[in-house]
Amino acid sequence: MHELDFINSVQGQISLMLKEIEEPDLNILFSFLDERISAPESFVVMLGETSSGKSTLINGLIESKELIVGVKPTTGNITEIMEDNSIDKFDYCAINKDATIENLSKDVFDKLQIKPDNSLLRLRLLINHFKYDLKNLRLFDTPGYGSILDNHEEIIKNFIPESDIVLYVVSYKVGFQNEDNNFVSFVNNLIDKDTKFYLIINKVPADINIPDNRICEITQHASDCIHQNLNPYIVRTINGVNNDPILPKAEELWNDMCKDLLSENRKKKISINYLNLQLDLLLEIETCINSKLLNYKIDKDSRTKIKDGLESLLSKENEIIKKIQKAFDNIRGKIPNLFEKAEIKIVKILEDEIMASNKWTSMEECNAFVSSHLIRINVEKQIQIIKYELELELSKLNDEINDILNSLLLKFELNIKTDAFEFENLIKSISKKYLQKASGYGLNSFFKIYGGTGGSGAGVANFAKRALKWSGDAIGKKFTRETHNALAKFLSKVGATSAKSVTAAGYIIIEALFYVNDALTWQTKLIKSCREGINVWSKDTLIKSMQDLYQLELSNIENIKSIFEDYKNTFDISTDNIEPENEEKFRTIVKSIEDLRNKIKTTLKSIN
Ligand SMILES: Nc1nc2c(ncn2[C@@H]2O[C@H](COP(=O)(O)OP(=O)(O)OP(=O)(O)O)[C@@H](O)[C@H]2O)c(=O)[nH]1
Ligand SMILES: [Mg+2]
To answer: Which of 105, 175, 398, 511 has most Cβ atoms within 10 angstroms of its Cβ?
Structure first.
């Protein structure tokens, strides 16, 4: 049987089971999955420095000037472009932070593309039909690196890590700058091995013959940052006339993108994803039924034991949360000092170098070396030390919380142990659930949630339920794709912030020396401006890292809460005896779940 047919037949059987057990939450999960299977989405994120021509390229794809373009930094918000055959030509929406979706007039849509807006999460442009076979594509137009880092967490947390393809645009004339270096290295930390990275060299003049030095240079730099040998897409510049806007065709690019998205390899990956989701869903159903069966089987004494055990378990939730809060407070208390130390160290090194007067033949030479090289190298060294310290502290906390949780859950299981084998089954299925979903729950998954709204640590099912409640528009693939190690991601964000701030610091230094001609005092002046620059770097990076730490703390608390909630729901046993009217029916379902699971596993093996 073809994989998709098999997946659909499993859906059919699950649907029959769900009719028997009548659980609204499971039905929501089911329709969520069903929707994804009928329309597997792909994610493509367009990235690159400001004015590299990202929005223009997308306008070319959709053959209409819907996205605003301009010479100055233009795009201020994320715009998601999707196909919707039910609309006429184009339709415009705002997705707000409170999860509401608003229809917009073209006029308001245009204004929002440029202007930051506190309540807006992202914009959505619906088009009737993509020229290529790009059904179910979700394409994201983004602003430049700085704006993404400061204002668009969603892109960093959700869309880049989830993307099938990242399109990275460099303008030929501008070349591969320091910012591109930082940006691509950062992206490299966020994507996994399945994500394709396309390098697009844009606005290449017509008279440039390929191969060309600059193209080789850009390709080499980008390849180094992403640790792959890239083969760039060359997009030639077009000259627009007033009434004839620039709409680059970039056919090779879109054709290849299409091929990649529709490739057998990708279809295989999607099938594997769905089969794993079905395994998840079957576990959810099994846990639910075992919970009901347990209800039928146990006597009054055991009921009270479970109720007490659960109460005692739940009473520990606050303790753990307080522990997390305390640990994060502690870490936040320590990092200003780390930055202060780093600042002193860097300034000292710069001072020594600058004052080594026999080393420099001119102020310009020294200035160039300091602002483009020395500062960067030393800031990088110091931020590594800070990141290492943070990693130690956070990993320690991770281990502690996992230990506490594991021993709490073990104690809960031992305390309420009854003779009923249903209890054993329930414990088994809830443990399996975590094992399967978190791919190693209890070990390294505590931080996984930082990887996105409801990473696997939080429980896939919880995510889907909550996501649906919040927006009715959850990101399908978040469901299974293994979330990246969130700690690594957090640290890489600290590194990215630092790299961005040091660029700003470099400008301060260059600017300060612009007007200095005095051969005697330049060293003192350079040292002074270095101090100022390093201070800006330190303050900036510290503030942003503190904000990121708050977020990490919040998402980890959410994660803990969801684990307790899961236990609460699963062991929500009635204290009264219940008539086992459906017992036979449920036992038959449990049996068919086991059969189905084996079939899915066999199919998974055959695909791999
Ligand atoms: N001559 C010429 N100009 C181009 C071409 N592609 C883009 N441009 C111009 O380059 C400028 C920047 O293009 P945008 O598409 O706004 O660039 P962007 O990458 O979206 O920039 P941000 O939104 O600021 O991040 C605009 O003025 C475009 O008209 C091209 O092929 N030829
Ligand atoms: Mg733009």
So the answer is: 398
Do 77 and 124 form a contact (C-beta atoms < 8 A)? no
444: pLDDT strictly greater than 50: no
Would you say how long the chain is, in residues? 608
DSSP 241: B
Q: pLDDT tens digit string along 252-276?
A: 999 999 999 999 988 888 888 788 8
pTM: predicted TM-score of the whole model, two decimal places: 0.82
Report the C-alpha gap between 383 and 534 in whole angstroms. Answer: 12
DSSP assignment of 385-451 equals: HHHHHHHHHHHHHHHHHHHHHHHHHHHHHHHT--S-HHHHHHHHHHHHHHHHHHTSTTTTGGGGGGG
**What distance in Å separates the CA atoms of residue 68 and residue 75, rounded to the nearest whole number?**
7
Q: Any idea which ligand is nearest the CA of 172?
A: 1
| 142 alpha carbon – ligand 2 mean position (Å) | 7
171 lines ligand 1 (CB under 6 A): no
Nearest one of 310, 258, 252 to 426, comparing CA atoms = 310
Is 519 touching ligand 1 by the criterion CB < 6 Å? no
With a 6 Å cutoff on the Cβ, whether 152 touches ligand 1 is no
Q: Put the strands of the sheet holding 233-236 in their side by side order.
A: 101-104, 90-96, 120-127, 79-83, 137-141, 42-48, 165-171, 196-204, 233-236
